[in-house]
Amino acid sequence: MPIFDSKAPPNKNQALLVSVMEFYHGVPLAPRRGVKKDTKRLHKILSRLGFQVTIHNDLTAEEIRHVFKTASLEMGGTCFVGVLSSHGEEGLVFGADGNAVRLAEIFSWFGGPGTSETTKLFFVQACRGKELDGGVELQADSVSVSEEDSFSPCFSIPIDSAVMFATAPGYGAFLHPMGSVFLQTLCDLLEEEGGRSLEVTQLMTRLNYRVAHNFEAKGRELGGKKEMPCFITRLTRQVFPFADRLKEPLPL
């Protein structure tokens, strides 16, 4: 069940935050410490920016499909933000039951005629492979799957959408007990007037820069490893989804 699920007014921007921290007994996937930090901070910031935020934790693969498909049918406002955080591989994320969800399937639901007036933004915190970028002990959000399950979701991204991944294809994404570097850096930018006022592709480019240049893993095994987010856009217009929407002051 969602933590927050009051239906948004037709003209209100919406955000859907789906995170998996704990997996079912017997599923060979490690708990993802730090997920709650990401979710709590994103909820606070997006709510203050005028979004109706719904949170779902530890859903099965089928439940993840259901909440995103439902969101695609109930969108309102000018912008939808979807955040998906779990273990993953290229083109896939995993539910709490260990079953895979194809990102291509999720994205495809947001291409219908009822979504054409809404900008769709997706942020995916999950590994896309096992490689580590050589460019605190950290956890990687990766797991191995068969090649046939790991096709690229890029072709299913609908018009007037952008998808930002925590890492490049084939590489791992890092998660710290205090949160993921990718989503925490996104929150940093949205708390800054000069960040949230940016056109969305400029915001994503600045997010790329900060993670790539400011983050370096520590620890005996992962010390010196880097993370490089990337994004794909099919936007046909400039959009400023977070600008001039602040409902109350954000902390400095």
Automatic annotation (TrEMBL):
<dbReference type="InterPro" id="IPR002138">
    <property type="entry name" value="Pept_C14_p10"/>
</dbReference>
<protein>
    <submittedName>
        <fullName>Caspase-7</fullName>
    </submittedName>
</protein>
<dbReference type="InterPro" id="IPR052039">
    <property type="entry name" value="Caspase-related_regulators"/>
</dbReference>
<dbReference type="InterPro" id="IPR015917">
    <property type="entry name" value="Pept_C14A"/>
</dbReference>
<feature type="domain" description="Caspase family p10">
    <location>
        <begin position="160"/>
        <end position="243"/>
    </location>
</feature>
<dbReference type="Pfam" id="PF00656">
    <property type="entry name" value="Peptidase_C14"/>
</dbReference>
<comment type="similarity">
    <text>Belongs to the peptidase C14A family.</text>
</comment>
<dbReference type="InterPro" id="IPR029030">
    <property type="entry name" value="Caspase-like_dom_sf"/>
</dbReference>
<dbReference type="InterPro" id="IPR011600">
    <property type="entry name" value="Pept_C14_caspase"/>
</dbReference>
<feature type="domain" description="Caspase family p20">
    <location>
        <begin position="11"/>
        <end position="131"/>
    </location>
</feature>
<dbReference type="InterPro" id="IPR001309">
    <property type="entry name" value="Pept_C14_p20"/>
</dbReference>
